[in-house]
Amino acid sequence: MRGYALGLLALNLLTLLWGTTFVVVKGAVAEMAPSLLVLLRFFLASLFFLPWTFRLPKGVWGPGLELAFWLLLGYASQAVGLMYTSASRSAFITALNVVFVPLLLSVAGRRLGPVWLAAFLAFLGVGLLSYDSRQPPLNVGDLWTLLTALTYALYIVRLEVHAKVFPSLPLTAVQVFGTALLALPWALWEGVFLEGVPWGAVLYLGVAATALTTWLQTWGQKYVPAPQAAILYTLEPVWATLFAFLVLGERLGITGFLGAVLVVLATLQAIRRSPT
User: In 10 A of CB 276, how many CB atoms?
Assistant: First the structure.
């Protein structure tokens, strides 16, 4: 139970950090290629884990590179999607992973029980929280972000498996290094131009929103089952809305307030049962 509680704390801190990133990424891809953004943020993150790359446990490279592949697809499709769609719509579509995770586990034969209700409430809450009547119709950016939701669901499911086998720091080290390595051909194909790179945004994304968050997620999912973790991750837009209110003075309407309440209720419903 102690590990489960600490895992919940780690994943909640993770969502708080994630809540700051949508606007940062959208601003960054307006000034640089998405491939270069993904490459630089994971390269910076990998520098923090260099000590563990020299003391890796046997067999960690295969699982770590598999997770890196899903991470690359998720981060890349999200960055490309944000070139065409709004940050709020990106947050909403990305939250579809809360439905995809239990769906994938059910197909694999895992019985989930009441977690489906929490997943539905969480997705409905994110929809209300992200709703904006002024947004344009569906576009190509939304399709890219749908790929983000699917690949991130696969990442969550597979991370649950590997996080229970390997220590979190070495597994995180291989993930971030592998993602940077896989992003390199993409960045070279698009052309690497460092002029005009918003280094402040890249540094923040690399250190706080990649190195720290990837380790928190890897460590937290050692103790928190994938379905509950996916529901916890829907707290991300709640934190994002809170930051927008505190920093930018944005107001939350009744629809958004109701959505935030539903996400919190879904989270409480998901975590009130200890994992079996």
Answer: 5
